[in-house]
Design goal:
With 555 residues, the chain is mostly helical. The chain is built from 25 helices and 2 strands. The chain has 3 domains: 40 residues, Irregular (CD2-Gal4), CATH 4.10.240; 166 residues, no CATH class; 245 residues, no CATH class. The longest helix is centred in the last third of the chain and has 25 residues. 43% of the residues are buried.
């Protein structure tokens, strides 16, 4: 019978595929191709054909996953995804020989938007998925360490291409692989093999640590495993005592990877504070030394204060760390400090300042926020804007050096900083001492344009910022005609989950990025902007700062 299910051979030859619902078909039996006959639906064949565009080039020798190509892809991936710490080895260690071909193919897929004269990114991704699924079927030679590395890459690829639901599922897949791998009895190997194993574990943890895990098991995992050895010790074969997260003495640590992990822990704490509801959950004054906010802020400030002269942010230090191959981690460290400050402080901003007399906090002011120390609101506002300026400066310096890195975390930082800078531009009275907000905003915008040109997730960030700007400009000129501003308030910290590429919190909805990217209706007015934002948001963070309708602020 002739149906929409047909084998690859018959489809390519454009002839009838006669079969009984299973392979082989009559044509393959006739030409002695029974072993190679596979039946596909039309949709399945499209995926198969797209994957084999790359696979056939590899098999035919037209495209070789050569050592030079893979090493180039490693360099690009390290620049864009510093969390993949199993790629951070001294130059004398040949990673090409350590990495499985499937992982190499995944690195090519992650790097393909930046490679010249390479196949389409979608073709590389399809080929990587096809090879990874083949490996999953090969139970005899299944290597869970390879699967862990590949599943993390798989997760990042789906996130970057805007397939967030698929990425969510692969976050669960990576977690299963991690559990199976760590439950196995680890056999002792060479120092390099041991380090390759532990760095793969940390790559998974730094990539997949989500807020759900932040409450329970995931936080314990951060202290369960030893930290990777410094590359200097690895080069000299000096093992020394194992170091764990709890062993880090900030005033005596110059190892950037350790500081990066420590900052990730603080970033997770800041996210958790927001996810629980921020100031609406913790009904306490942030200046109270016993408050959760105060302890969080002290952790951030303590880390920043104890950084050594080589670890503090400066343009000379940035240049030096890039020369040492650690520039991206150095930037990640400081982005983590800056964005954590912004997260916990902007929770005390009003949607729109009530007057031109400077910062006063959210209005109407809750009872627990009355009696702020003199200058506290002013200092809080200036810190948020100054951190945003620093983030913008980092992106500008990266762009000058052609070292921009595009991932969900850097995109979130760029979007958050740009949103606060455009707030400062539209409401200058909230911090009269802050200048050139629009200039620094442009730095963030340039970065997001670059991100947009390479990945679909970048388009999401760019579009979200465009609507945020229109919304704030409309609010500044009283051009919003809606009954409530809660939609925009809810939007602000939904973006936190965008920076976490693993599973969302249980029993909650997440921001529907795919719907946002493919919205059939593009808003053309400020009022429609609000409706559009509201339709693409799902989770109420309790950010209704004003407690009254927006019509009270319009003429």
């Amino acid at each position: 019978m002739r149906v929409t299910v047909a084998c690859a051979g018959c489809r390519l030859k454009k002839i009838k595929c006669v079969h009984k619902g299973r392979a082989p078909c009559q044509n393959c039996q006739t030409r002695d191709g029974s072993d190679e006959c596979r039946l596909f639906t039309t949709q399945e064949f499209r995926k198969y054909k797209r994957a084999n565009t790359v696979l056939l080039k590899i098999d035919s020798g037209k495209l070789a996953l050569s050592e030079s190509l893979v090493n180039t892809c490693i360099e690009i991936t390290v620049q864009n995804h510093p969390e993949l710490v199993f790629l951070y080895f001294p130059p004398n260690i040949n990673l090409f020989r350590l990495l499985d071909p499937v992982v190499c193919l995944g690195l090519c897929a992650l790097s393909s938007p930046y490679l010249e004269k390479s196949p389409e990114n979608s073709e590389f991704i399809a080929a990587f998925e096809a090879k990874l699924l083949e490996k999953l079927d090969d139970k005899a030679s299944m290597d869970y360490l390879v699967l862990l590395q590949a599943s993390v890459i798989w997760l990042l690829l789906n996130w970057q291409t805007g397939k967030t639901h698929k990425g969510y599922l692969f976050g669960g897949f990576a977690d299963r692989v991690y559990t199976t791998l760590t439950n196995q009895k680890s056999t002792s190997g060479s120092l390099i093999e041991q380090e390759f194993y532990i760095r793969s574990i940390w790559a998974y943890q730094l990539t997949c640590l989500s807020l759900r895990e932040g409450y329970t098991d995931g936080r314990a995992r951060l202290t369960k495993y030893r930290l990777p050895m410094p590359n200097k010790d690895l080069l000299f074969g000096h093992t020394g005592p194992s170091k764990y997260l709890g062993d880090i003495n900030l005033s005596q640590t110059s190892e950037l990877l350790y500081l990066f992990v420590y900052t990730t822990d603080i970033w997770t704490d800041s996210n958790t504070w927001i996810f629980k509801g921020g100031r609406n959950h913790y009904r306490e004054a942030p200046w109270d030394p016993a408050s959760k906010w105060h302890s969080l802020n002290m952790r951030i400030e303590s880390l920043e204060a104890q950084l050594g002269p080589k670890e503090k942010f400066s343009l000379s230090n940035l240049e030096a760390h890039f020369s040492l191959g650690e520039g991206t981690i150095f930037c990640y460290l400081h982005l983590g400090i800056l964005i954590s400050k912004i997260l916990i402080r902007r929770n005390y901003f009003p949607f729109v300042p009530l007057d031109q007399t400077g910062p006063k906090g959210p209005q109407p002011l809750p009872k627990e926020l009355c009696g702020a120390p003199k200058g506290w609101w002013k200092e809080n506002a200036h810190t948020v804007f100054d951190c945003s300026r620093m983030i913008a400066t980092i992106f500008d310096e990266l762009q000058k050096r052609k070292k921009l890195f595009c991932n969900s975390y850097s995109g979130y930082c760029g979007l958050t900083a740009a949103s606060m800078l455009i707030y400062a531009h539209n409401f200058p009275s909230y911090d009269p001492s802050f200048h050139d907000a629009d200039l620094y905003y442009q730095y963030c915008l340039d970065f997001l344009k670059f991100y947009k040109a390479h990945w679909e997730l970048g388009s999401y960030y760019y579009d979200f910022l465009r609507h945020t700007r229109r919304m704030l400009e409309a609010a500044a000129s009283n051009r919003i005609e809606i009954a409530s501003i809660s939609a925009f308030e809810n939007m602000k910290d939904e973006l936190i989950e965008v920076a976490n590429v693993a599973a969302p919190l249980p029993k909650t909805d997440r921001l529907n990025i795919e719907s946002l990217l493919r919205s059939p209706k593009v808003p053309h007015s400020p009022a429609e902007d609000v409706d559009w934002l509201s339709a693409n948001m799902a989770w109420d963070f309790g950010w209704s700062n004003l407690g009254v309708t927006f019509t009270d602020y319009t003429c």
